[in-house]
Amino acid sequence: MSETAVKALGVPDANRWKALVFIALAQLMVVLDGTIVNIALPSAQQDLGISDGNRQWVVTAYALAFGGLLLFGGRIADLWGRKRTFVLGLAGFALASALGGAATNEAMMFGSRALQGVFGALLAPAALSLLAVMFTDAKERAKAFGIYGAIAGGGGAIGLILGGFLTEYLDWRWTFFVNIPFAVVAAAGAWFVIREPGGGRNRSPLDVPGVVLSTLGLVALVYGFTRAESAGWSDSVTVTMFVASAVLLGTFVFVESRVKAPLLPLRVLTERNRGGVYLSLGLAVIAMFGLFLFLTYYLQVVKGYSPVKTGFAFLPMIAGMVTGSTQIGTRLMTRVAPRLLMGPGFLVAALGMLLLTQLETGSSYAALLLPSMLLLGLGMGTAFMPAMSLSTQGVEPRDAGVASAMVNTSQQVGGAIGTALLNTVAASATTAYITDHIGSATSPAQAQLVQLEAMVEGYTSAIWFAVGILVLAAVIAVTFVNAGRPNMGVIAGSGAGAEDEVPVPVVAH
């Protein structure tokens, strides 16, 4: 047994729980950024003179850079070391946020958002893979991933509250500046506290063709869905993006099966448990992203809530996610197989979504929205927690970064698909409703009521799709994921050498 393995067999790093605080803080910052900017977008658009046609680029520039570079970021974490990549990502994200907060025109704003995406793509996989290599005891891993899963699931809703406060009481620029203290504290803490276990680097030369093909393929895919939302599915550029994405990603898979040191080793994807996690998580995020958008508009436009009140209205969902992840998921993960948490979790979330299909213009928050949000939160929290842990469990340490990047990629692509697909369904149903009912409106007040009813009709039509998608996620989780409950064991192939044997959670089939 080698010296690396002997070290690995020693006592776990005493600072691992302190490290979790800073990793969780960084993850919260990245997730917050996804929704906090949406709340501030109308104010920023007015201030900077951004046209209606160009405003989507505030969101799209970030999504393209983040989604396109995630696999590259995961590989960089494996090559450079996760701690170094994590700190660099935080520093870059802080600088990009400062640039966005100080933006004086649309070009500066779009550039800052793209830079945030670039550094986010370094930061996110490094954070998850650090957890994977630092927490190897099954019970501790369950707790650590419970906290991480709660933040990954509930952070977006927290962003709505914080974004509402900052926009309403300070200025939209603070939705960018607020990232700086998060990043500084997380980077300083990580630098002094995190001790990355040795022997987990992947020092193989960088697969440049893989980087180029995967980045261009993912950018084309995310942009195709983003453009479909505004220009339509039959738009020539939309279709071209989808065709280009299919060709590029198909070529990428072919190249990865041939090169000696692939960017994404196909063994990471083809293991049925990880494949099931990536697929079911991506589907669940499709449903969740669309829901956040619809409920935000419903509460503000139909019910007349302020941005702050809208944010607080999402609190039951956050409470449900935290409870599902840190209480239900963490307590049961070491006792039952992951699929018995993921499958029922997605079904409970689907039940919450099913309640929302009853939404009307006069629906009561307490009677309908509150119970549906609690069910959604509980279900998603319970399902996300084992999914996050399983996505890197049993993977060789040298592949931890790229396996973590695949979790983020499935969520990012799922978010882009969800926003475009469910928005298209909602828009079609809204238009059809107006066409059928506007003729019966005899006054401006009645016409306005028809418009609101049409919006809600659109939302409920899209939510029916989301229910089906969540049921499909549950079926995939139960069918594909066949891992047993985690036990402590010894497996070979730690990445430090074929002869090394390092204890990590193994999957009992």
Automatic annotation (TrEMBL):
<feature type="transmembrane region" description="Helical">
    <location>
        <begin position="20"/>
        <end position="41"/>
    </location>
</feature>
<protein>
    <submittedName>
        <fullName>MFS transporter</fullName>
    </submittedName>
</protein>
<feature type="transmembrane region" description="Helical">
    <location>
        <begin position="237"/>
        <end position="255"/>
    </location>
</feature>
<feature type="transmembrane region" description="Helical">
    <location>
        <begin position="276"/>
        <end position="299"/>
    </location>
</feature>
<feature type="domain" description="Major facilitator superfamily (MFS) profile">
    <location>
        <begin position="19"/>
        <end position="485"/>
    </location>
</feature>
<keyword id="KW-1133">Transmembrane helix</keyword>
<dbReference type="InterPro" id="IPR020846">
    <property type="entry name" value="MFS_dom"/>
</dbReference>
<dbReference type="InterPro" id="IPR004638">
    <property type="entry name" value="EmrB-like"/>
</dbReference>
<feature type="transmembrane region" description="Helical">
    <location>
        <begin position="85"/>
        <end position="103"/>
    </location>
</feature>
<keyword id="KW-0812">Transmembrane</keyword>
<feature type="transmembrane region" description="Helical">
    <location>
        <begin position="462"/>
        <end position="481"/>
    </location>
</feature>
<keyword id="KW-1003">Cell membrane</keyword>
<dbReference type="InterPro" id="IPR011701">
    <property type="entry name" value="MFS"/>
</dbReference>
<feature type="transmembrane region" description="Helical">
    <location>
        <begin position="311"/>
        <end position="328"/>
    </location>
</feature>
<dbReference type="Pfam" id="PF07690">
    <property type="entry name" value="MFS_1"/>
</dbReference>
<keyword id="KW-0046">Antibiotic resistance</keyword>
<dbReference type="InterPro" id="IPR036259">
    <property type="entry name" value="MFS_trans_sf"/>
</dbReference>
<feature type="transmembrane region" description="Helical">
    <location>
        <begin position="56"/>
        <end position="73"/>
    </location>
</feature>
<feature type="transmembrane region" description="Helical">
    <location>
        <begin position="340"/>
        <end position="359"/>
    </location>
</feature>
<dbReference type="InterPro" id="IPR005829">
    <property type="entry name" value="Sugar_transporter_CS"/>
</dbReference>
<feature type="transmembrane region" description="Helical">
    <location>
        <begin position="115"/>
        <end position="135"/>
    </location>
</feature>
<feature type="transmembrane region" description="Helical">
    <location>
        <begin position="147"/>
        <end position="166"/>
    </location>
</feature>
<feature type="transmembrane region" description="Helical">
    <location>
        <begin position="206"/>
        <end position="225"/>
    </location>
</feature>
<feature type="transmembrane region" description="Helical">
    <location>
        <begin position="172"/>
        <end position="194"/>
    </location>
</feature>
<keyword id="KW-0472">Membrane</keyword>
<feature type="transmembrane region" description="Helical">
    <location>
        <begin position="365"/>
        <end position="388"/>
    </location>
</feature>
<keyword id="KW-0813">Transport</keyword>
